[in-house]
Amino acid sequence: MKHFLTVNDIESLPDWVDEAITLKQNPYQFEDLGKHKTVCLLFFNNSLRTRLSTQKAAMNLGMEVMIMNFGNEGWILEYQDGAIMDQGTSEHIKEAAQVVSQYCDIVAIRAFPDLKDKAKDEAEEVLNGFAKYASVPVVNMESSTGHPLQALADAITLAEHNKKSRPKVVLSWAPHPKALPHAVANSFTQMMKLQDAEFIITHPKGYELNPNITKGCQIEYDQDKALKDADFVYVKNWSNYNDYGKVLNQDLNWTMTQQKLGQAKFMHCLPVRRNVVVEDAVLDGNQSLVINQAQNRTFSAQIVLKKILESL
Ligand code: CP
């Protein structure tokens, strides 16, 4: 595998999920695979789970790990070809990506959107810039439009807790005071399209995600109707996609409550704002899978790093 940039880079979702669940029983089974190999984790944005779980995954495989908070500590990068760099940028992605590639065998990138310019965000200039100019494989640790490591962890969690041949899974929008990206919802949707499940997305009218991603998915604007008899409810805020990056709705009627959840399992990628996105009773109750999802981040990263190491 050259790069892991989107859910589409998962060669076989069921096989990778099975392999991850097996690996979880014996995380050090391949501890020699990464000997004398280095992964470099570049963070342009904050993280808790992605940073620590990817580091842990690499360590389980015997890799060395280098981490840089590029957003605070790196030079400001230029991404335009032919740019006259007489303003704020100090280093071109062409040099930066090639230089980083000399120090490691895999480079992993976290780079969020600025949610101001849809075309610019969808061009994924940081992730795709590294993929274009790096001479080593690139892993997406959440980009402007996708968070495939999270989606793979979510697929592992679903497999571990599902008791039905065709579960009902609902992706439910939630209110949030800040403008958040679409990456988690996009990748979860892409992942669910690979599952044998009844999948429904529910959100207020006007909060449609990228139609290229939701194409073929059932969308229900009535949250109560969508949640009826659900087995799993994945709650996530995203900012408006059409009026790009705006927060046009903070309706707390969309907050997930124990009453709305019913008997379903609750999922969220974390971090989560308590009593805005979801009420305490849900997070503190035994139907919540959020800690399991976070645990599975290690094994989604470990499967991806393992696949790449095996292909080097
Ligand atoms: N879910 C997730 O990616 O968490 P972090 O932003 O803390 O890495």
From TrEMBL:
<keyword id="KW-0808">Transferase</keyword>
<feature type="binding site">
    <location>
        <position position="142"/>
    </location>
    <ligand>
        <name>N(2)-succinyl-L-ornithine</name>
    </ligand>
</feature>
<feature type="binding site" description="in other chain">
    <location>
        <begin position="47"/>
        <end position="50"/>
    </location>
    <ligand>
        <name>carbamoyl phosphate</name>
    </ligand>
</feature>
<feature type="domain" description="Aspartate/ornithine carbamoyltransferase carbamoyl-P binding">
    <location>
        <begin position="2"/>
        <end position="160"/>
    </location>
</feature>
<feature type="binding site" description="in other chain">
    <location>
        <begin position="269"/>
        <end position="270"/>
    </location>
    <ligand>
        <name>carbamoyl phosphate</name>
    </ligand>
</feature>
<protein>
    <recommendedName>
        <fullName>N-succinylornithine carbamoyltransferase</fullName>
        <ecNumber>2.1.3.11</ecNumber>
    </recommendedName>
</protein>
<feature type="binding site">
    <location>
        <position position="273"/>
    </location>
    <ligand>
        <name>N(2)-succinyl-L-ornithine</name>
    </ligand>
</feature>
<feature type="binding site">
    <location>
        <position position="75"/>
    </location>
    <ligand>
        <name>carbamoyl phosphate</name>
    </ligand>
</feature>
<dbReference type="Pfam" id="PF00185">
    <property type="entry name" value="OTCace"/>
</dbReference>
<dbReference type="InterPro" id="IPR006131">
    <property type="entry name" value="Asp_carbamoyltransf_Asp/Orn-bd"/>
</dbReference>
<feature type="domain" description="Aspartate/ornithine carbamoyltransferase Asp/Orn-binding">
    <location>
        <begin position="184"/>
        <end position="305"/>
    </location>
</feature>
<dbReference type="Pfam" id="PF02729">
    <property type="entry name" value="OTCace_N"/>
</dbReference>
<dbReference type="InterPro" id="IPR006130">
    <property type="entry name" value="Asp/Orn_carbamoylTrfase"/>
</dbReference>
<feature type="binding site" description="in other chain">
    <location>
        <position position="297"/>
    </location>
    <ligand>
        <name>carbamoyl phosphate</name>
    </ligand>
</feature>
<comment type="similarity">
    <text>Belongs to the aspartate/ornithine carbamoyltransferase superfamily. SOTCase family.</text>
</comment>
<feature type="binding site">
    <location>
        <position position="236"/>
    </location>
    <ligand>
        <name>N(2)-succinyl-L-ornithine</name>
    </ligand>
</feature>
<dbReference type="InterPro" id="IPR043696">
    <property type="entry name" value="ArgF'-like"/>
</dbReference>
<dbReference type="InterPro" id="IPR006132">
    <property type="entry name" value="Asp/Orn_carbamoyltranf_P-bd"/>
</dbReference>
<feature type="binding site" description="in other chain">
    <location>
        <begin position="147"/>
        <end position="150"/>
    </location>
    <ligand>
        <name>carbamoyl phosphate</name>
    </ligand>
</feature>
<feature type="binding site" description="in other chain">
    <location>
        <position position="110"/>
    </location>
    <ligand>
        <name>carbamoyl phosphate</name>
    </ligand>
</feature>
<keyword id="KW-0055">Arginine biosynthesis</keyword>
<dbReference type="InterPro" id="IPR036901">
    <property type="entry name" value="Asp/Orn_carbamoylTrfase_sf"/>
</dbReference>
<comment type="subunit">
    <text>Homotrimer.</text>
</comment>
<keyword id="KW-0028">Amino-acid biosynthesis</keyword>
<comment type="pathway">
    <text>Amino-acid biosynthesis; L-arginine biosynthesis.</text>
</comment>
<feature type="binding site">
    <location>
        <position position="176"/>
    </location>
    <ligand>
        <name>N(2)-succinyl-L-ornithine</name>
    </ligand>
</feature>
<comment type="function">
    <text>Catalyzes the transfer of the carbamoyl group from carbamoyl phosphate to the delta-amino group of N(2)-succinyl-L-ornithine to produce N(2)-succinyl-L-citrulline. Is essential for arginine biosynthesis.</text>
</comment>
